[in-house]
TrEMBL record:
Keywords: Hydrolase. PANTHER family: AGMATINE DEIMINASE-RELATED. This is Agmatine/peptidylarginine deiminase. GO terms for molecular function: agmatine deiminase activity; protein-arginine deiminase activity. It comes from the Bacteria. It comes from Methylomagnum ishizawai. One of its GO terms (biological process) is putrescine biosynthetic process.
Length: 342
C-alpha cells in the first residue's frame, strides 16, 4: 500500500508559484523581455487561482506589484514570499504535492543538487522549506525526503503511473548509490508509483536537466500523452526523437490499453548568442484551473501545437505565451511554475 500518490496536474488547484527574475540573475541581459513574459503568465494564473510570487526584497516586490497592476491583475489574488533563490525554475525546487490514502494532502521536499551538481544551489535547495515557513501554503504538512528528485523529471496520471526518463533518474549525478530497482522503490514509497514508465530516448539539444520528462512527454489525461515530435529528417534530433515516439507507442495505460498519442511539432531551432541550440518544446505547458498555458516561440509550429493541445483539453482555454525570452536560460513555462492542488 503506497503512502501517497503524486497528484496529476489537471487536479483543481489553490495556487501556482513563480519566482520572479531579478537584475543580478542570469536573465539580466534580457530582463525587460523576461519580465513581460512573467507578467503575462502571472496575469493568466491570477485570473483563475491564487498567484504566489517569490521575490528578493521589498523593493523587488513593489516593482513586481506595479507590473502586475499595469496588466490589470487583481492584487487580492497575489501573495508575495520574500526569500532567497538562485534560479527561477521552481518546478524543480518547490515541494511536490501528494494525496494521502486518507484523502488529505502532503508536501514533499526532495533534495535538490543543482541538476546533478551543475550549478550552485544553496538557496534553491532550501526554497521549499523557506516557502513553507511563510505560511502561504497553509497547514498542509511538509516532509523532507532524502532523495534527489526534481519536479520536472516526473509525470503522474494520478492512478499509480509515473512517467520519467532513464537519462535523468538513473544518472549517477543524482542518486549514485541507488540502482533502478531501488529508485523505483523510492518512487513507489513517496509518489505512489505502482508502475514506472521509463522513457529511454529523447533529449532536447541544450537541455541541461538530463532530459526532464516535461520537455518530452506529458500526461493530458490518464490515457492521453502529448509528446515532442521531430518530423524533419534533416534535423539532427530526428533519429533520437523517432526512437522516442516508437517507444511511447509501446507503452500502455494503467488499464492496459494503448495511449492516445498527440505529437507536438518542435519549433525551428532557436540559438543562443554563442550559437548553441536552445531546448524549445511545446511539451513544457502548464495546466491550471480552466486553462492550459502553452509556450510559443514565434514559429509556424505554434498554431499547430495550440490546436492539438486544445483537442487534448476540452473545456479548458488554451493560451499561448511567448516564451522565447525564457528559453534563453534553457527553460520554459512549465519549468518556472509549480502548482499546489486543493
Amino acid at each position: 500500500m503506497s503512502t501517497a500518490t503524486l497528484i496529476p496536474e489537471w487536479a483543481e488547484q489553490t495556487a501556482t508559484l513563480i519566482a520572479w527574475p531579478y537584475p543580478e540573475s542570469d536573465f539580466q541581459p534580457w530582463l525587460a523581455a523576461v519580465e513581460q513574459t512573467y507578467t503575462h503568465i502571472g496575469a493568466e494564473i491570477a485570473r483563475r487561482e491564487t498567484l504566489i510570487v517569490a521575490c528578493c526584497d521589498a523593493a523587488h516586490r513593489a516593482r513586481i506589484a506595479a507590473m502586475l497592476a499595469g496588466r490589470g491583475v487583481d492584487t487580492g489574488r497575489v501573495h508575495y514570499a520574500i526569500l532567497p533563490y538562485e534560479d527561477v525554475w521552481v518546478r524543480d525546487t518547490a515541494p511536490l504535492s501528494v494525496a494521502t490514502p486518507e484523502g488529505g494532502r502532503k508536501l514533499l521536499d526532495f533534495r535538490f543538487n543543482g541538476w546533478g551538481g551543475k550549478y550552485g544551489h544553496g538557496a534553491d535547495a532550501a526554497l521549499a522549506r523557506n516557502l513553507y515557513a511563510t505560511g502561504l501554503l497553509g497547514d498542509i504538512p511538509l516532509a523532507g525526503v532524502d532523495f534527489v528528485l526534481e519536479g520536472g523529471s516526473v509525470e503522474s496520471d494520478g492512478l499509480g503511473t509515473v512517467l520519467t526518463t532513464t537519462r535523468c533518474l538513473l544518472n549517477p549525478n543524482r542518486n549514485p548509490s541507488l540502482d533502478q530497482a531501488r529508485i523505483e522503490a523510492r518512487l513507489r514509497e513517496y509518489l505512489g508509483a505502482e508502475r514506472v514508465l521509463w522513457l529511454e530516448h529523447g533529449h532536447a539539444e541544450g537541455d541541461d536537466t538530463d532530459a526532464h520528462i516535461d520537455t518530452l512527454a506529458r500526461f493530458c489525461t490518464p490515457d492521453t500523452l502529448a509528446y515532442t515530435a521531430v518530423e524533419n529528417p534533416e534535423d539532427p534530433l530526428y533519429p533520437e526523437f523517432q526512437r522516442m515516439a516508437a517507444q511511447l507507442a509501446t507503452f500502455t495505460t494503467y488499464s492496459g490499453t494503448a495511449y492516445r498519442l498527440v505529437p507536438l511539432p518542435i519549433p525551428q531551432p532557436i540559438h543562443s548568442e554563442a550559437g548553441d541550440r536552445l531546448p524549445a518544446t511545446y511539451a513544457n505547458f502548464l495546466i491550471i484551473n480552466g486553462a492550459v498555458l502553452v509556450p510559443t516561440y514565434n514559429d509556424p509550429a505554434d498554431a499547430i501545437a495550440l490546436e492539438r493541445l486544445a483537442g487534448c483539453f476540452p473545456g479548458r482555454e488554451v493560451v499561448g505565451i511567448d516564451c522565447v525570452p525564457l528559453i534563453r536560460q534553457y527553460g520554459s513555462l512549465h519549468c518556472m511554475t509549480m502548482q499546489f492542488p486543493l
